[in-house]
Design brief:
The chain has 265 residues and is of the alpha/beta class. The protein contains 10 helices and 8 strands.
Amino acid sequence: MRLIDAHMHLDHERFEKDIDEVVDRARDAGLKVVITSGVNPSSNRTVLELSKKYDIVKCSFGIYPVDAISNQLEDVGEEGYMRHVEKFDVDSELEWIEEHKAECIAIGEVGLDFKIVPGTENLQEPIFRKIIRLAKKLDKPIVIHSRKAELRAIEIMEEEGADKVLMHCFSGKKSLIKRCVDNGWFLSIPAVITRLLHFQMMAEIVPLNNLMTETDAPYLARVAGERSEPADVFGTIGEIAKIKGLDEKEVAEQIFNNAERLFGI
């Protein structure tokens, strides 16, 4: 089977001690492509180097919505947040991304987050539009983060005419999932499908032609409290196949075909 992890974070500190083994396990599990996503300048440069080091690893350059507005906030705060927030100039980073466009497979992760920094819609939305326009200019797909902002993210992308879209770990209701499908966008299923009914529902109602697999590793593991990694995609294929009543090889091949269409791999 040809498998893809369409979104994860190989540069995370939880992979520092055994990154070679993680990549080896991914390769052994059938992963042909692992897309590691940046979230800020330092992360973008790290994922670029990782894509040069490992044959199955591709990189996506992103500006996480919380980082994107850090310069405009007195205190982002880290209570309940998973990492340090880096302050930087968004326009300068967008220029860097454009300069290195040939070295990335997508723009992401990017989007909106109204949970971590509520009440900052007026700060986040202009930057999100700017990023969408750059992705369109570069003819790159975008990997979207839309936590507690699912409807608004969809509305903005529709207004901006975004067509090459992967909705990462989408938590919106059924009507919004169907709206994404109607727009021709893709939705990715993480390994946590084994224990979250929402992703089981998504796997059921989204046509196979619009599905992708991701891990968001090291997050969203199959078992609560454990570390997720790209090799977990193999199990996700099995879950999707069971839900749809299809053969695992058929599911895996169609999802990889979807990735070829979106990412041009």
